[in-house]
Every structure is written in C-alpha cells, then in structure tokens.
Amino acid sequence: MPREAAEWRINMNVYEAITARRTIRKFRQEPLQHYDLIKIIDCARLAPFGANLQPLKYMIIDDKAALEKIYPMTKWAGYLPAWQPAENERPTAYIAVLNDTSIKPTEKSECDSGAAIMSMILEAQELGIGSCWLGAIDRQGIKKLLGIEDKLDVVYLLALGYPAQEGDVFEMRDDDVHYYFDDEGNVCVPKRKISDIIVK
C-alpha cells in the first residue's frame, strides 16, 4: 500500500463520528458559519448516487425571518407528538434537500437522498454541529415560501445548530423502539444489539 493511502487510513475517525452522533432536537441560539454550511453541502455533493445522476440540489436557510416561517411547517419527534423545541431551542439553520425532477423522478431518488443526508450529518458531527433529519414537513408550503422553481421537489430538511442537549443509546428491550427525553432533557435512544442484526 502506498504511504499516502496508509496515512489516509490511519487518520480516518469515521467510526468515532458515527458512534458519537445523535439526533439533536435542542439547539443553542448561536449562528453557524456560512463556510461550515458550504462544507457540509460539499460532503453531500460527493456522496454516492445511483447511476451517478446526482439529481439533488441544496438550499441553505439561515435567515431569521425564514427560520421563523419554516418552523411551523415541521414536526420534531414522532414518539413525542406533544413536544416541540422551545423558541430558544430551535435550529439556527436548515439545509433543504431538493430533487431535480428534470434529472430523476423524486420517487426514485430516496437512496440518493439518504446517502447525501448521512454524509452531511457526519460532517456536521465533525464540526461540532448538531443535526436532525426532518421528514415530517409541509413540502409544498416550504416550496412556496422559499420560491423554489417547479422542477425542484422538497425532499427533506436537515435542521442544524450547535447542540443544547446530549444523547445516549442503550440496548433495546422487547423490541421497544421508542426514544425518550430523560430528566435533564437529553435524548435516550434504544438500539438493537449487534448480535441481533447479523444474520448467520
């Protein structure tokens, strides 16, 4: 193996980023740096895409007025339906993931979206930025609000901000997938054991 490749492998800490990552739903009210948001999107650009068609586009939303208008168009915790972030806990930026229907039908770009969003989430983790992948959103309302052209469909939002909560995982019991907030407002998430997901 060439020395450069060996050094590249040694310096990678992807496993640490993945095992440390948690979905964050409470954020400190500090603005994110624009160059960090561009760096996060650049990681989405380099994600794997089916047939390398690269149908996704991205829009940064970090203007305070736009953030306030988008917030009512989002839902935050399926297993905690009555919960919403308080006004001083809301994200300080969103990245809208858009599918260009002139390149690929939106219903066929789900895997593309997943790869791109996970790439963005991991880069955000490296930068110390918390993230929440939002799928329960008013897509048409967001599209109209942001003046997005007809050929672009809103697929997902990635909510971003510096974390105002921590998270932990624990071993799932009795197939109970429900996450919850502990007494300190941190999120606790059940995960299946590694032995339960490896098929022999």
User: What Rg, in angstroms, do the CA atoms define?
Assistant: 18 Å
Strand segment count:
7
Average predicted confidence as pLDDT? 93
Classify the secondary structure makeup into a structural class.
alpha+beta
Encode the helix/strand succession as letters. Answer: HHHEHEHEHEEEEH
Q: Going across the major beta sheet, what is the strand order?
A: 1-2-4-3
Strand content: 15-25%
Q: Helical percent range?
A: 25-40%
Q: For the report, how would you describe the main beta sheet? A: 4 strands, antiparallel
Low-confidence stretches: none
Q: Indicate the overall shape.
A: globular
Measured between the Cα atoms of the first and last residue, the distance is 32 Å
Please, how many helices? Answer: 7
Describe the structure concisely:
With 200 residues, this protein is α+β, with helices and mostly antiparallel strands. It has seven helices and seven strands; from the N terminus they run H-H-H-E-H-E-H-E-H-E-E-E-E-H. The longest helix is centred in the middle third of the chain and has 17 residues, at 110-126.
